[in-house]
Amino acid sequence: MGLACGIVGLPNVGKSTLFNALAGSALAAAANFPFCTVEPNRAIVPVPDPRLDQLAALVPTQKVTPATLTVVDIAGLVRGAHAGAGLGNQFLAHIRAVDAIIHVLRCFEDPEIIHVEGAPDPIRDKEIVDLELQLKDLETLQRALQKVEKAARLQGTPEEVKRWVLLQRAEAHLQAAQPLRTLPLDAEEQSLLAPFQFLTLKPVLYVANVAEASLPEGNAFSEAVAALAAAEGAPALTLCAALEAQIAQLPPEERTDFLRLYGLKEPALHQLIRAAYKLLGLITFFTLGPKEIRAWTLPQGVRAPQAAGRIHSDMEQGFIRAEVTAFADFIACGGEMEAQAAGKRRLEGKDYIVQDGDIIYFRFAV
């Protein structure tokens, strides 16, 4: 779908280590000095979905293909980035290119790993990043405001006037040191702001990166991160990036015992990927067959013909109908024929909005 999450934060907080774990390889250099990552690394990672295993247990198939998520490892930011300090201009441009942010906050102490601010303090670190993004957005907004005000005064159309008023609201919000994602906006207002690609309008997932010794409960640092995320209405997750990188390198048959040593039921990366997927507003539908069971990714609110187009453009153009079974009904009935016999398989037309977990057979004419 072209949507991506960017991993951001100050230098030496564990961004590249986390990216390596997500990628399942050492694609990103991880070293003890600022700006280790210059050009962003990109990985397409599978989305862990236990529903695929349940479907494969009921439907004989040759191949199971999960949905995927694109993750980008972005250079660390320092104070003054909005004015070009450090790698500020590159950093901010790379953030502008992603759709959501995974903000990694260092929640461990280690004298062997340099901290650019002297010592760990995740709340201060979060505020540094927020301030830099807000200042860059304010710069972008004030340039845009001059053009929009001129258009509103000259043309006077309702849309131009509404955009002008909205940008003034956004400016006041930023000047109050608040990110734009906390500004109450309806769907129309979000659409009006979208072309400006404001950095602080992007949804954020906060990741508290702790030491192994702090698992599984976390520590005072990670508790503070959870509290600030809750106050903002944002999701938060506690993990140890170094441990997750180790787990990612283990053979699958060894992971369960390794996780048990730390009181974990599954790799925290699985939770992270699912949370990031949700943050992007994505859902999954399934197609089943003897050759492949596949999970397909869609933004929320997409109609059946466009979902068919994810598989092949001919299917969207020649769409006739969709035969849909909810995942829960499919599993409860024990398979395709049983679900159909129980009346759980239904026919839907071109106006049907696909739901997460739908199992769909598309009928189309070429």
Counting helices, strands and paired strands, the structural category is alpha/beta
The chain-level mean pLDDT equals 89
Helix fraction bin: 40-55%
Q: Please give the count of helices.
A: 14
Euclidean distance between termini CA atoms: 24 Å
* Radius of gyration of CA atoms, rounded to a whole number: 23 Å
Characterization of this structure:
- The chain has 366 residues and is of the alpha/beta class.
- It is 43% helix and 18% strand.
- The protein has helices at residues 15-23, 50-58, 88-96, 122-155, 158-175, 187-193, 220-232, 241-249, 252-261, 268-279, 304-311, 313-317, 327-333, 336-341, and strands at residues 4-8, 41-46, 64-65, 68-73, 100-106, 204-209, 236-239, 282-287, 293-299, 319-325, 346-348, 359-364.
- The strands form three sheets. The protein has a six-stranded mixed beta sheet, with helices on both faces.
- The longest helix is centred in the middle third of the chain and has 34 residues, at 122-155.
SSE blueprint:
Elements: E1 4-8, H1 15-23, E2 41-46, H2 50-58, E3 64-65, E4 68-73, H3 88-96, E5 100-106, H4 122-155, H5 158-175, H6 187-193, E6 204-209, H7 220-232, E7 236-239, H8 241-249, H9 252-261, H10 268-279, E8 282-287, E9 293-299, H11 304-311, H12 313-317, E10 319-325, H13 327-333, H14 336-341, E11 346-348, E12 359-364
Parallel strand pairs: 1-4, 1-5, 3-9, 5-6, 6-7
Antiparallel strand pairs: 2-4, 8-9, 10-11, 10-12
